[in-house]
Amino acid sequence: MALAALALTPPAHADTLVDNVNGITLDQDGKVVRFTGLLIGSDGKVRQLLDRKDKRPERPDFKEDGKGRTLIPGLIDAHGHVMGLGFSLMLLDLSDTHSLAEAQAAIRQYAADNPEMPWIIGSGWNQEKWGLGRFPTAADLDAVVADRPVWLERVDGHAGWANSAAMAAAKIGPTTKAPEGGRIEMAGGKPSGVFVDAAVALVDAAKPKPLARDLDRAFLLAQQKLISQGITTIADMGTTIQEWQAYRRAGDKKQLAIRILSYGRDIDNMALIAGSEPTPWLYDDKLRMVGVKLYLDGALGSRGAWMKAPYSDAPGQKGLPLLTPAQLRNKMVRASMDKFQVAIHAIGDAANAEALDAIADLSRDLPGERRWRIEHAQIVDPADIARFAEMKVVASMQPIHQPSDRLMAEARLGPDRLKGAYAWRSMEKAGVRLAFGSDVPVESANPFPGIAAAISRTDAAGQPVGGWHPEETVSRETALDGFTRTAAYAAFAEDRLGTLMPGMRADFVILADDPLLASPDAIRKMTPLETWIGGYRYYKKQGGAGG
Amino acid sequence: MALAALALTPPAHADTLVDNVNGITLDQDGKVVRFTGLLIGSDGKVRQLLDRKDKRPERPDFKEDGKGRTLIPGLIDAHGHVMGLGFSLMLLDLSDTHSLAEAQAAIRQYAADNPEMPWIIGSGWNQEKWGLGRFPTAADLDAVVADRPVWLERVDGHAGWANSAAMAAAKIGPTTKAPEGGRIEMAGGKPSGVFVDAAVALVDAAKPKPLARDLDRAFLLAQQKLISQGITTIADMGTTIQEWQAYRRAGDKKQLAIRILSYGRDIDNMALIAGSEPTPWLYDDKLRMVGVKLYLDGALGSRGAWMKAPYSDAPGQKGLPLLTPAQLRNKMVRASMDKFQVAIHAIGDAANAEALDAIADLSRDLPGERRWRIEHAQIVDPADIARFAEMKVVASMQPIHQPSDRLMAEARLGPDRLKGAYAWRSMEKAGVRLAFGSDVPVESANPFPGIAAAISRTDAAGQPVGGWHPEETVSRETALDGFTRTAAYAAFAEDRLGTLMPGMRADFVILADDPLLASPDAIRKMTPLETWIGGYRYYKKQGGAGG
Q1: Residues A501, A505, A510, A513: is their CA dihedral positive or negative?
Q2: Which residues of A touch B (CB under 8 A)?
Q3: Burial of A264 (0-12, 13-18, 19+ CB in 10 A)
Q4: What range defines the domain where residue A130 resides?
Q5: Do A397 and A348 share a structural domain?
Q6: Cβ neighbours of residue B105 under 8 Å, at least 6 residues apart?
Q7: Residue A252 with chain B: CB contacts under 8 Å
């Protein structure tokens, strides 16, 4: 990786002055505040924002010249999957290979670099791009790795390529039958090594479960990647006990740099991890279990999202709820009684309506401020939008999904239902608080394309020109707010994270340009020059303009 | 409870002088060191042991007059079950009731005191002691608790008494059949409420699993009990993920007072909790996962201990190993490769021999100092004792088991095999390191009866006079060593715990009398006046002589 190594045990130092910057933050009320110097206390919190004319402390313990560059609050990803990202970074990626020989060389190298991995797992191969004229075979893989299983997903996810050791581990032989909806490629009366569609599961089932050391390694990779992208805090949406233990191990070893706001994967993980109430803030505000993530429906692409009316491209199909009304409410009550926050995954308009119904049913009788979250809130009946605001439900949305999903969403929904699709501005106008995230690793965690999508509703190619349903674009300030102040609010963290006002944790990012002034295309291409968390610089771009 | 409440958030203070004491510790080599003053640094570690003639610091931040009482190192229980103790303390105890009416009053009061408990669980009833002339009934219970299940074990453990709600929860009705070896008491054609022997399981199966808040409460009760008994550190032999999470919650909330040396309950818990190596010392040395606990056989009382020859009172029965040779060795290798310590439960002489065989098989090829432990080492073939010493295997034994088991052990083993039973002195003579514990809650955690048993081999009544196989008694110094210095060594904690030499954690107990001079009977009755951990006083006996 071309990233600067993270300094994981930062040196202890006292007061720090980061001076000569184009400083930007939102204040507690969301108003833009500009400053030229940032004074950080030895506790890692912002002590003072300095204006051009303010007097600087005479001898700070540490002084950093910002050279006029832009400084913004650390970005908060309100919805991601930390370990999912980590594991995706550990996999062998063959998408850049242009021939079988090139792929074989990459596989051999990866296996040599990872001698302790029991299986070599990867993805991205495409025999058409290689000009191979045939599927690759187990023998092609055996030639480079014979000592352990190799299992590689095709670029489209619809086929897998195994070596002989993987087929042996999965007990696949000449008489193995493909399951319905699947196909086993054959050669000379035995499986050739490629498994198509449902047959992929035959080999998948034999894959070893990750060990703790795999989780630890994946976590460090994810953390490094996120920090290099300017993410200083991430809400981990659906933490398992295994994942939580990896976060704690990192914390115990003083290797936890990023801040993780954790939501347990359903009630069992929540209770096993946190017990009968949210955890305290751990490791200097680096880790906390705040609440629980509940899945109410699936996704739009696979038509798992639960819709009020049938899919436009699949008459009769409306998706399905994953929880009955009673199940949903029972889980919500169980979590809420113990003061856990509830975050409900709802993509389809029926799922969103049901989540809102459940919230309405329960809000009256539950004590305290519940700050309900609906995750994705992707396709919402316009008639339901006002209910988010009425019940103060946070809409936790991922702007980058809009350009990624555009053509698929048009096919699934038809023109009539697009009014409530990825409807950030309608939410905002109704008074709904918008928290923004990436859904990493479904999308890249890079928040800058997300901000660009939020303000332009265009994709990386600037398409469609003028933006897709441009009435739903939000301002640069709203986009920044969604990735900072409101993302913190959405996880009960606004007392310490999300802005750079005095008393808040000194989490910030240094950029070459000002995102409140740049074009969407320029924002999309921004990369952090530096990332600071709690007053320590954890990342500095190598050879960057900020050098 | 009559105990002083634990001050769970001790005040921060700096240097402390505990002066005018009859101070005793062992040094690193096990030699007795005496002192009259203990100087503790602000880091909670012993700074200096002061002799009568040594100069005292002029103005310590905090000074305590020991009034000539005895100060010994905090006692370390080398083998206990913290949450088992906690849950036993949470149960309703009816063993002191003398009539059904008295029991009913106690049950009503307990239910009122514990409104959140979904089931009322208890034990200790005895209708004969009550002079009832019949078994009690569900109706007797319904009269005092009807709103939730009540389920009470008879004093001998061979029967259970349920109310109607418990029977309903267990789906027990007029047609329910008792399993083989069990009996359901009937009245008027339906179950009366008492279930005998194997039928107990019918109701047991319906008991709810404990919630996190139950674990948290049980932990605090156990901790309070242990500290009041002078235990400052305990090796938790077989920690589950649920239990570990409770310890961490206590640590996170600064409620962890006692030190816990944790051994995961088999490999799965070990790996889920600690990952790929033992955890760091957490919470100022209050918690660490050191290793794994493996069960190789059962217990002597139930003839589950695995013997070389048949039981004397059950010809043909030799008990059974719970692991095959390959399973045992695989688990040992898996743990050891990741530097976890291995503690093997072995009670019978065959189990001890097999554990030693496995250690011999693996020791050659495993790197580092493994410091194997055998837990209980209760019945050992005298021919095998030298092998403990040769391979530096720690014998982790519980002296109190000897008086408790005496008559049963004589019946099970016959006279010939008693030579290697509870054979502390034979172990010591062979050069084996002895770590002592209680096996709480199988026995009381109180270490003083354990010390008394170790030096006298008599029970609470002083029986048998002169001691049972008195050739196996050890010295007072060896008994203290087993509960302090070697108990620390047994868990790789000798660099910080187990003695009061300078640099060690200031964990100590204040007693009215000197256990190196007192009679076994006097030692058996000793109770701590104060217990200090890390330089803080966590317990002070109310109205005690140390007032």
Answers
A1: negative
A2: 211-213, 215-216, 241-242, 245-246, 248-249, 252-253, 271-276, 279-280, 282
A3: buried
A4: 119-205
A5: yes
A6: B144
A7: 279-280, 282
Q: What CATH number is associated with residue A261?
A: 3.20.20.140
Q: At what angle do helices A266-274 and B241-252 cross, to 10 degrees?
A: 50
Q: Quote ipTM for the complex.
A: 0.87
* DSSP codes, A395-413: EEE-TTHHHHHHHHHHHHH
Residue A407 has phi, psi (to 5 degrees) of -70, -40
Say yes or no: A261 and A170 in one domain: no
Tokens of B511: 């007693």
**Rounded-to-integer distance, Cα B61 and Cα B16, Å:** 6
- Of A147, A175, A205, the position where a domain reaches its end is A205
Structural domain count of chain B: 2
* Residue A535 lies inside a defined structural domain of this protein: no
Answer for the pair B203, B150: CB distance below 8 angstroms, yes or no: no
For residue B167, what are its two tokens? 């029977």
Q: Do residues B260 and B247 make contact, with C-beta atoms less than 8 angstroms apart?
A: yes
Burial of A39 (0-12, 13-18, 19+ CB in 10 A): buried
- Candidate from A213, A248, A272 with C-beta closest to B242: A272
| Spacing of C-alpha B468 from chain mean position | 23
Given a contact cutoff of 8 angstroms between Cβ atoms, the answer to whether B358 and B328 are in contact is: yes
Report the C-alpha gap between A168 and A187 in whole angstroms.
Answer: 16
Q: Which of A213, A274, A279 sits opposite B275 (nearest CB)?
A: A213
In the numeric block, the tokens 């409410």 are attached to A329
**Cα(A190)–Cα(A174) distance, integer angstroms:** 4
Which run of H or of E encompasses B185?
strand B182-187
Position A199 in a domain: yes
Pair (A189, A337) in one structural domain: no
In this prediction the pTM is 0.90
Phi and psi, residue A381, nearest 5°: -60, 125
- Residue of B215, B242, B279 with shortest CB distance to A252: B279
Phi and psi (nearest 5°) for A134?
A: -160, 165
**How many angstroms separate the CA of residue B245 from the nearest CA in chain A?**
7
Cα–Cα dist A49/A10, whole Å: 23
Q: What is the CATH number of the domain that holds B176?
A: 3.10.310.70
Distance from CA of A251 to the nearest CA of B (A): 11
Do residues B411 and B273 both lie within one domain? yes
A529, two tokens? 């020059």
Contact across the interface for B275 and A245, Cβ inside 8 Å:
yes
- pLDDT tens digit at each of 547 positions of chain B: 334 445 555 555 679 999 999 999 999 999 999 999 999 999 999 999 999 999 998 888 899 999 999 999 999 999 999 999 999 999 999 988 999 999 999 999 999 999 988 999 998 899 988 999 999 999 999 999 999 999 999 877 778 999 999 999 999 999 999 998 889 999 999 999 999 988 999 999 999 989 999 999 999 999 999 999 999 999 999 999 999 999 999 999 999 999 999 999 999 999 999 999 999 999 999 999 999 999 999 989 888 999 999 999 999 999 999 999 999 999 999 999 999 999 999 999 999 999 999 999 998 888 789 999 999 999 999 999 999 999 999 999 999 999 999 999 999 999 989 999 999 999 999 999 999 999 998 889 999 999 999 999 999 999 999 999 999 999 999 999 999 999 999 999 999 999 999 999 999 999 999 999 999 999 999 999 999 999 999 999 987 444 3
B76, B450 in Cβ contact below 8 A?
Answer: no
Please count the residues of chain B: 547
Direct distance between the N- and C-terminal alpha carbons of chain B, in angstroms, rounded to an integer: 18
CB pairs under 8 A between A and B: 52
Helix (H) or strand (E) holding A32: strand A32-40
Three-state secondary structure call for residue B268: helix
In a domain, B228, yes or no: yes
